[in-house]
Amino acid sequence: MAPPQLILMPSSAVLPVGVALDGLLTELRRLSWGAADILRAYARGEQPPFGFPSALSVDDGGEGPVSAADLAVNRWLLDGLAESFPDVDWTLLSEETAKEQLTEGQPLPGDWLWILDPLDGTKDFLQGTGEYAVHLALVRGRRPVLGVVLLPEADELWIGVVGEEAWCEDRQGARSPVRFSERSELADLILVASRSHRDDRLEQLIAALEIGGSKAVGSVGCKVATILRGETDLYVSLSGRSAPKDWDMAAPEAVLLAAGGRFTHADLTDLTYNTGDVRQAGCLIASHGKAHVALGERATRAMADIDPGFAV
Asked: pLDDT tens digit string along 55-87?
């Protein structure tokens, strides 16, 4: 049976000159599922496709499966975008190229920027939980306009066009909608939290929010997907000694915004990208939007007691 055909409505999305949304999405699908094949091969110790080398252990002179997978997917995405859109005026930035590209305090030049994370959820990739993701976000003027979050092990490709819509596709192109939960009272909300990035401050903040429960999931992309499926309702990031980076947040935020959700600082200010500082520091809240203002207000009050002077 032939895969279902997606009917694309005329789009009002603002994109770089020479880029049509349907053509861009077609290429993003190809690159995303190719990235899924690469990562799944490395995760299973199999020969990766597209001519990428097998992972060598550190003992054998290599850098291990995570580095091999990171580098292969990074190359696949950067080369794919460059070859498919050779004349488009945008800049490509990934976690793997950031050290070479970025100068502290200086935004990258140009109006359009791709922010890529070839492998979000390294610990989960290594541990075999399946909760890792690939992030691709197109940013203009410090704000995301389009995002893709690929969950290779779940066979889910989340796509969001900010100001229009968000949806999920499987490998065959079958499309399913966002299904936010109907929970709207703070006492009923379910939090999705990190397994590894937790400290006493975050535990105190979660208690102060007085919500209904929580579950632990790896990767920011996987966390936001639980909100999009209606399994959870909010995610909180609280920076400490380290902070998430632009490539952790941009694509998940784009998809969530396109779906009608929100992703802000606790004081309800927007996240911004390509500012000259890639750290997304502070108290950040992602949610389905139904109680976002109340969540932000409660979190801001709580942090004033938990960590006085902390910039939310």
From this structure: 865 444 445 567 899 999 999 999 999 999 999
As a whole number of Å, the end-to-end CA separation of the chain is: 52
Residue ending a domain, choose from 149, 177, 205: 177
Letter string b/e over residues 98-110, b meaning 16 or more CB atoms within 10 A of that residue's CB: eeeebeeeeebee
Same-domain status, 161 and 214: no
Neighbours of 12 (CB within 10 A): 9
Q: Give tens-digit pLDDT for 171-213.
A: 999 999 999 999 999 999 999 998 766 789 999 999 999 999 9
Say how many C-beta atoms besides its own lie within 10 A of residue 291's C-beta.
20
Domain that residue 54 falls in = 21-177
Tokens in use for 59? 């003992």
Q: How far apart are CA 115 and CA 249, in angstroms?
A: 10
